Amino acid sequence: MTNNKKLIIAIDGHSSCGKSTLAKGLAKHFEYKYIDTGAMYRAVTLYVIENNLHEGKTIKEEELKKAFEEGKIKISFQYNPETKKSETLLNGKNVENKIRGIEVSNLVSPVAQIPFVRHELVNLQREMGKEGGIVMDGRDIGTNVFPNADLKIFLTADAEIRAKRRYKELKEKGQDVSYEEILANVKERDYIDSTRKTNPLRQAEDAVLLDNSHISIEEQLQNAINLVNEKLK
Ligand code: DC
Fold it and tell me: Which end of the chain, C or N, has fewer beta carbons within 10 A?
């Protein structure tokens, strides 16, 4: 369904609660562009790992800053017509699979709390979305990236349910992970994401809260389509 109005739709919420599934579904339905901002923080994290810019969970911030300043970290997306999926590129290289692994998941929250990293990526996100006709998902889209978004959805689900879903997904991809490890990661990211100083995860005052613990993907999508249609009237 298309309409001349090109809305900006912001989807924020906790880790692993299906934001990207909902965002992709909405983008497909309304023929909008989908932008996965988590993938951008993940790509920076992969750069940190591959260039040894961390010691445990401590990031070598000076060196990372220098890499940004020297233009060594370029993030973009490309549509793959074969898989019909969007892929994340780091310096022109497809890193879509690598950024979804547990190694990146375990380090991404410390990277995402660094103010200059957020500043860089938020600028890029605003640039990517400025024309409208986009669904953008993340943690601070409705509160910070696009505070004037036409529709804001805040998605959540019980931590155990989120961990079970993510565990199943990673197992299906052949990754060697345990449920306990995933649950610990989900809880740790919730904590870091919502307590960090710069643009923490929180529900915007004008966001619609959707808890998908006990509803299907289809029901959730239909609810969101109805919300968008209201805005398009
Ligand atoms: O959505 P995701 O799980 O792929 O996001 C990965 C991490 O990136 C998440 O733990 C928090 C961070 N993130 C963020 O701080 N701000 C965003 N807009 C998107 C993600």
Answer: C
Domain residue ranges in the chain: 8-232
Ligand 1, pocket-test mutation among 37, 59, 190, most atoms within 8 A of CB: 37
Q: How far is the CA of 16 from the centre of ligand 1 (A)?
A: 10
CA dihedral (109, 135, 76, 202) in degrees, to 10, reads -20
**DSSP per residue over 141-181, as a string?**
IIIII-TT-SEEEEEE--HHHHHHHHHHHHHHTT----HHH
* Alpha carbons 217 and 225: distance in angstroms, whole number: 12
Torsion of CA 194, 197, 203, 206, to 10 degrees: 180
pLDDT one-digit tens code per residue, 185-213:
999 989 988 998 988 999 999 999 999 99
Q: What is the pLDDT of residues 96-123, one digit of tens each?
A: 999 998 899 999 999 999 999 999 999 9
The residue to mutate among 11, 15, 140, having the most atoms of ligand 1 within 8 angstroms of its beta carbon, is: 15
Tokens of 104: 């990146």
**Cα–Cα distance between 12 and 154 in angstroms, integer?**
5
Superfamily of domain 8-232: P-loop containing nucleotide triphosphate hydrolases (3.40.50.300)
